[in-house]
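RETRY 2/3 - previous attempt timed out on the joint model. Re-submitting the same 226-residue input unchanged.
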Amino acid sequence: GAVVSQHPSRVICKSGTSVKIECRSLDFQATTMFWYRQFPKKSLMLMATSNEGSKATYEQGVEKDKFLINHASLTLSTLTVTSAHPEDSSFYICSATTDMNTEAFFGQGTRLTVV
Amino acid sequence: GIQVEQSPPDLILQEGANSTLRCNFSDSVNNLQWFHQNPWGQLINLFYIPSGTKQNGRLSATTVATERYSLLYISSSQTTDSGVYFCAVERYSNSGYALNFGKGTSLLVTP
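RETRY 2/3 succeeded.
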């Protein structure tokens, strides 16, 4: 199956700082990448969808100025949590789909803790 | 939007037992996937199954698209099967097509 790598797997940052999370498709070109957020013992909630070379599209209620998404190439998308606050602490997971079909493959996730 | 309901929410099995997890969805879908989330949070693809039946080792899945449900069968369960099983269906959102997840079934397999 297709491999998606997410980095870092765990990050602790101070309140007010920014954190960048990378999502890479290692063995395929991902025209579309997705960012999800998961709270403890909860399901995954879609935050935004990004297509290579175009602006990300955000779900209702997701602050685009808080969560900056860049999809600069067919193998890399980044999520930057700007001016992080403790309420931004969560598990963030990216996924990617290929052109062949709509099966989605997920990265390992990033556990963000803002102190 | 499309609703995805999974049952049961929690399940405890003794090693060696079989189980069936269910996923109901409220509208027709182009894509349905089953995932296993391990204790470290990684989502493992189990099945891409918009319709029909597939088998992979001790796991199999059946989706009856016309009746809007999917079943995941786990046979001869092992402790390593523990974790959360998610069903996700493709839906149209603000950003195009994306997966909409159910709330999951939390499975614990005891020795």
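Chain A has a mean pLDDT of 92. Closing ticket.
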